[in-house]
Design goal:
Distance between the termini: 62 Å
Keywords: Aminotransferase, Pyridoxal phosphate, Transferase
CATH superfamily of the largest domain: Type I PLP-dependent aspartate aminotransferase-like (Major domain)
GO biological process, one term: L-alanine catabolic process
Shape: globular
Subunit structure: Homodimer.
Pfam family, one: Aminotran_1_2
Number of domains: 2
GO molecular function, one term: pyridoxal phosphate binding
Oligomer: single chain
Strand content: 15-25%
Length: 344
């Protein structure tokens, strides 16, 4: 029972891992707690393997925080329909951009221990922290610091070369670190992914990502300079996106603390909602298509990620240069004002 490192394609690793829990006990499927909003890979994987999705809502009113009381509520809701086995935590959040505090992670670990849940920590954006009051804390590190019995809990954490400030999104690869898993189960997992190979290029880039330049190496100074410049630009663009979005009538956005997205909430007139329903679309999907057709701006509707019923969101990125972000958001603002007039 130690540490296992899997060099693989990240999405394939997470899918193979979740398939370990694909069994029925007392004629009930295994259940997996996932955040809402969430990265759609998880809901799609659960559906493919016949696992029950147990959604827990992040608290939008408190910067998309993860609250143990909501985890407890989600478990109570499904106690008669499935067997909860896994808790998925995405930190920093996608699409919400929140960063969990050390205390928050401790409480989540205690919750998982109390309910005998395997922890799955999606930490692929761990290097993208640009909020001055936030810091990344890995679940493994916090569990170890807490000591027994928490340090003996089963945990799988994911990292990717396709995210973070080095973000090579066209190159797919990553790794999973698994601790305290039973050796027999680990053998099954290794066998299940034995035919999954990352590309040679992906493996080369992964080696570069996990072994950055050291202080005594020639490229260290330039590496640090470029890294700091990228993260500083993320912080500036995050603030810019937050300010402009919150200036749009009916918009409310939490400032992103990490990752590379904004996930604003927006209100729609009742006539717009009726028009969406008439076309068989969710209101935020209808809005996103109107936005694309009228401005060329592409966003992903919040309903793709999950959201509290009756609310509307979309995900957009903070990656473009500041000049392009300003142009895009100004076009979005003008579109929204016209949209409100059209459907008022």
């Amino acid at each position: 029972r130690g540490v296992g490192m899997l060099d693989t394609q990240e999405s394939s690793a997470s899918m193979s891992f979740l398939n370990l829990f694909n069994e029925r006990i007392d004629d009930k499927p295994s259940g997996v707690l996932i955040p809402i909003p969430q990265y759609p890979l998880y809901s799609a994987t659960l559906a493919e393997f016949g696992l029950a999705q147990i959604g827990y809502y992040l608290n939008e009113g408190n910067k998309w925080s993860l609250e143990v009381s909501e985890l407890e509520r989600a478990l109570r809701k499904v106690e008669d329909t499935c067997n909860p086995r896994v808790l998925v935590v995405i930190n920093p959040g996608n699409p919400t951009g929140q960063v969990l505090t050390h205390k928050n992670i401790e409480n989540v670990i205690r919750f998982a221990h109390k309910h005998h849940l395997f922890l799955l920590a999606d930490e692929v954006y761990q290097n993208n922290i640009y909020d001055k009051d936030s810091a990344f804390h890995s679940f493994k590190k916090v569990m170890t610091e807490m000591g027994e019995p928490y340090s003996k809990m089963e945990l799988a954490s994911f990292m990717s070369i396709s995210k973070g400030y080095m973000g090579e999104c066209g190159i797919r690869g990553g790794y999973a670190e698994i601790i305290n898993m039973d050796p027999k189960v680990m053998k099954v997992l290794l066998k299940s992914i034995s035919m999954i190979y990352p590309t040679v290029l992906g493996q080369i880039v992964l080696d570069v990502v996990v072994t950055p330049p050291r202080s005594n190496e020639p490229s260290y100074e330039l590496f640090q300079k470029e890294k700091e410049k990228i993260l500083r630009s993320f912080a500036e663009k995050s603030q810019l996106v937050d300010e402009i979005l919150n200036s749009i009538p009916g918009y409310k956005a939490n400032p992103p603390m990490g990752a590379m997205y904004a996930f604003p909430r927006f209100e729609l007139p009742s006539k717009a909602i009726e028009a969406a329903r008439a076309q068989g679309q969710e209101p935020d999907v209808f809005y996103a298509f109107e936005l694309l057709e009228n401005t060329g701006i592409l966003v992903l509707p919040g309903s793709y990620f999950g959201q509290i019923p009756g609310t509307n969101h979309f995900r957009t990125t903070i990656l473009p240069e500041k000049k392009k972000i300003k142009t895009m958001l100004e076009a979005l603002k003008q579109f929204h004002i016209k949209f409100l007039k059209k459907y008022s």
